[in-house]
Design brief:
317 residues, alpha/beta, Spore Coat Polysaccharide Biosynthesis Protein SpsA, Chain A, 2 domains, seven-stranded mixed sheet, elongated, binds uridine-5'-diphosphate, binds magnesium ion
Length: 317
């Protein structure tokens, strides 16, 4: 643990021309205070990652780089999405910082808890999550869809921190470990808990966006949710298998009922055999799909090639 660590703030920006100047003003004031308080080293900086914006975002970042302190820039050659842009930023700062904080360009997350995050780091925590206290400023719709989403993730067996988005501090070794995850479909808030180092939380109130508009419309949010589940869980496939088993159970009941009808009432010829085979065949197909899916799930996990473990300490002689 360094006394005055070098801090890198990573900010993904997509069409953020409306907020960048103000964002940089606020962040550099914060860095000024932290540097003069000897909490972080004067080499600390802010890396703005331009995620293939088509507006003035990159020219503004270049201007900030040339004319102000702390600002650095990374220009991605196309729009790759928030998660990939953030990952790119973290990979870029890994060798040049002791701690990295990731935050959205609109500063909806309260930057005044960054000093508290650094305190936790000094106490020996490698990952510090920024957690929203309440969601008053979000619309009723966003609040409830978010809640449903966290519940669903939990049911699917994905470890994630409730009400935490991508506002977090990570030590250099945590970032390095994160970069060992070679998967394409990034869902960072599910990946970070897999790192396994000591974690802490700091709490804050989330603000409204002060300018510009949300880059996460419902469609993107849904895709993100589906990504989160399918990148972390093979449970949906396993569900197919169990639904198949239920079908076969139903088939047994239907068979009994059909035979009864066949013997006691006058049924239309062909009806009984159709009824019975309908449910049995459906059930068997689902079970077969579930079994195939189980293998595909295994292949999927192998292909991801995630690190098997993360060393905390190794004492050798
Ligand atoms: N963002 C990005 N690439 C994208 C979409 C968004 O880098 O394709 C960035 C955006 O500039 C912002 C952050 O991701 O810094 C979060 O986006 P936003 O604030 O619009 O989402 P919300 O807070 O409404 O969920
Ligand atoms: Mg936002």
């Amino acid at each position: 643990m360094k006394e005055t660590p070098t801090l890198a703030i990573v900010v993904p920006c997509y069409k953020e021309e409306a907020v960048l100047h103000e964002t940089h003003r606020r962040l550099s004031t914060l860095l000024d205070n932290l540097v003069s308080g000897k909490r972080i080293s004067p080499e600390s900086y802010i890396l703005y990652v331009n995620d293939g914006s088509t507006d003035q975002t990159w020219p503004i970042i270049k201007d900030l780089y040339q004319n102000t302190s702390y600002a650095c820039g990374l220009n991605l050659a196309g729009n790759v999405g928030h998660q990939n842009a953030l990952f790119a930023g973290l990979e870029a700062v890994i060798e040049r910082c002791d701690i990295a904080v990731s935050i959205d360009a609109d500063l909806q997350d309260d930057i005044n808890v960054i000093p508290e995050m650094i305190d936790r780091y000094q106490e020996g925590y490698d990952i510090v999550y920024g957690v929203r206290k309440e969601r008053k400023t979000d619309t009723f719709f966003k609040r409830n869809t978010a809640l449903a989403f966290y519940r669903l993730m939990k049911a699917m067996g994905v470890k994630s921190v409730y009400n935490h988005a991508d506002y977090r501090l990570m030590s250099q070794r945590a970032v390095r470990q994160l970069c060992r995850f070679r998967e394409r479909n990034l869902y960072l808030r599910g990946m970070v808990p897999l790192i396994g180092y000591r974690t802490a939380c700091v709490y804050y109130n989330r603000d409204k966006r002060f300018a510009g508009e949300s880059k996460y419309p419902l469609r993107k949010m849904l895709n993100f949710a589906i990504d989160g589940i399918t990148s972390f869980s093979v449970k949906p496939v396993r569900m197919i298998f169990w639904i198949g088993c239920i079908f076969i159970l139903i088939a047994l009941c239907v068979t009994a009922w059909t035979l009864r009808a066949y013997f006691y009432h006058n049924t239309v010829p062909g009806w009984s055999s159709l009824m019975i085979s309908l449910w049995f065949v459906g059930g068997i197909i689902l079970v077969a799909l579930g079994i195939v899916g189980e293998y595909i799930g295994k292949i999927y996990i192998e292909v991801k090639d995630r690190p098997r473990y993360n060393e905390e300490e190794l004492l050798l002689r």
